[in-house]
Amino acid sequence: MDAWTGHDVPNLPGTAQPPRLFDSARREVAETTPGSTATMYVCGITPYDATHLGHAATMITFDLVNRLWRDAGLNVDYVQNVTDIDDPLLERATRDGEDWVVLAMRETALFREDMEALRIIPPAHYIGAVESIPEIAAHVRELLAAGAAYKLDDGTGDVYFPIAAAPRFGYESNLSREEMTVLSAERGGDPSRAGKRDPLDPLLWRGAREGEPAWEGGDLGPGRPGWHIECATIALGRLGNRIDVQGGGNDLLYPHHECSAAHAETLTGEAPFASHYVHAGMIGLEGEKMSKSKGNLVFVSRLRGDGVDPMAVRLGLLSGHYRTDREWTDEVLKTGEERLARWRSAAAASAGPSGEGLLAAVREALANDLDSPAALAVVDAWAEAALAGIGDDDGAPALMARTVDALLGVRL
Q1: Which residues contact 19 (CB under 8 A, 6 or more apart)?
Q2: Cα separation, 403 vs 412, whole angstroms
Q3: pLDDT score recorded for residue 345
Q4: Can you tell me the distance from the alpha carbon of 44 to that of 227, in angstroms, rounded to the nearest whole number?
Q5: Burial readout 229-243 (b: 16 or more C-beta within 10 A, e: otherwise)
Q6: What is the DSSP letter of 191?
Q7: Tell me, what's the pLDDT at 290?
Q8: Mean pLDDT rounded to a whole number for the chain
Q9: Of residues 22, 39, 40, the one with CA closest to residue 31
Q10: What is the CA radius of gyration of the chain?
Q11: Bridging pattern class, strands 37-42 and 75-82
């Protein structure tokens, strides 16, 4: 599967350090310490609707990580998946009387357009679940052979992963069993299903059902993969047994990231699967989480269609810290538009305060767990001074524009 078209990222003078990020497993901010190539896996969309601002905020978060690693002189091997076969996709296609393949292709194409407009650096590998099914089935068979999977005895052909096979299960989310059980039921699991060894055991392979698409799984029989093993397989196949960052929204912490890490660690015998498990907050509207089920989505494509500059959208989402659940309002957008106009005016000034000082301060703010509000405040103060005629660094406006472009992804 092809990703979207990328763009040139300016090189900046001086030296930078890799960012410090909050790790959900350790529940603290810690240094990222990649080798010469940093590796990152971010969970992508299930393409049954258009890109909303929650998706955009998550992708911008990990775009910042990508940019900071690159600024520190690292190569970045970034993988993102598309869950182009899953129950919500099939349900939406049935509801609308549409072919699920056509629905997935259309919404994936729209997602690509939105990401390009928001100037998200594309992943090196953009992988669909459907194209990965042979690899996934092979991993499920491997787990079965090792005694780390079991088939239900109800004739469905469904295969589950016993969490007892992962002694560290729960270390990433730090949740109690009671909390896990509630979230499993809310987020696609089936803790009350009869025949499972443990209510928290996640699905690895769903046997074929009448009226549903299915693929040949060898000894597994026909069917399709569970969600968590999909991401584990795609990441292992492109990035190796250990990665630097596994990322996504905070609604993926459990069960998705907990289970995908357990699958990967059981397959490889190495732990932890990721040095950092990084999770972005949710975007709300009128006091509620923005979600398809609530029908309160703000779509990136709709904003673009209304003539909103995607850079103003990006600035609006960067105005809150990535880990916080926060609101999208008309005022947030208006502030983003005003900030963008002010920055563009300042970038056209004849001189300003020290450009190198600005660059150092923006780097410092973002290196501190992606503190984008602090970074925006730094640029705001510089722009205010430059527009007031303060400062005699005639190269500063150009360096300011390059800094904002390279580190914040905002083109002036």
Answers
A1: 32, 64, 65, 68, 69, 366, 367, 368, 369, 370
A2: 10
A3: 98
A4: 12
A5: bbbbbbbbebbeebb
A6: T
A7: 61
A8: 96
A9: 22
A10: 22
A11: parallel
How far is 174 from 344, CA to CA, in rounded Å? 44
Judge whether 258 and 162 are in contact, CB under 8 Å: no
Fill in the amino acid letter for 233.
T
For residue 233, which of 202, 273, 259, 260 has the smallest C-alpha distance?
260
- Cβ–Cβ < 8 Å for 141, 127: no
Tokens of 381: 């103060």
C-alpha distances out from residue 18 to 47, 345, 369, 376, Å: 32, 31, 10, 19
Spatial distance between the Cα atoms of 353 and 334, rounded to a whole number of angstroms: 27
List, in sequence order, every residue forming a beta bridge with 283; answer none if it has no partner: 326
Tens digits of per-residue pLDDT, 239-273? Answer: 999 999 999 999 999 999 999 999 999 999 999 99
Q: For 395, how many CA atoms within 13 A lie in the half-sphere containing its CB?
A: 6
Tokens encoding 38? 């940093």
CA distance 220 to 215: 10
pLDDT digits (tens, 9 = 90+) for 347-360: 999 999 999 999 99
How far apart CA 146 and CA 169 sit, in angstroms, is 18
Q: Could you identify the residue written with the tokens 């693929």?
A: 215
Question: Tens digit of pLDDT for each residue in 273-317?
Answer: 999 999 999 999 866 666 666 667 899 999 999 999 999 999 999
- Using CA atoms, how far apart are residues 265 and 242, in angstroms rounded to an integer? 9
Residue 188 identity: G
The Cα–Cα gap between 219 and 302 comes to 46
Q: How far apart are CA 98 and CA 61, in angstroms?
A: 33
Q: How many CB atoms lie within 10 A of CB 346?
A: 23
Can you tell me which residue has the tokens 């030296």?
Answer: 15
Per run of 10 residues, the mean pLDDT along the chain (length 412 residues) is 96 97 98 97 94 95 98 98 95 95 96 97 98 98 98 97 98 98 96 97 98 96 97 98 98 98 98 98 79 76 97 98 96 98 98 98 98 98 98 98 98 98
Segment holding 280, helix H or strand E: strand 274-280
d(CA 195, CA 217): 22
**Which residue's structure tokens are 């959900």?**
24
Pairing of strands 150-151, 125-128: unpaired
Cis peptide, bond prior to residue 255, ω within 30 of zero: yes
What span, in angstroms and rounded, lies between the C-alpha atoms of 253 and 187? Answer: 11
Phi, psi of 245 (to 5 degrees): -140, 130
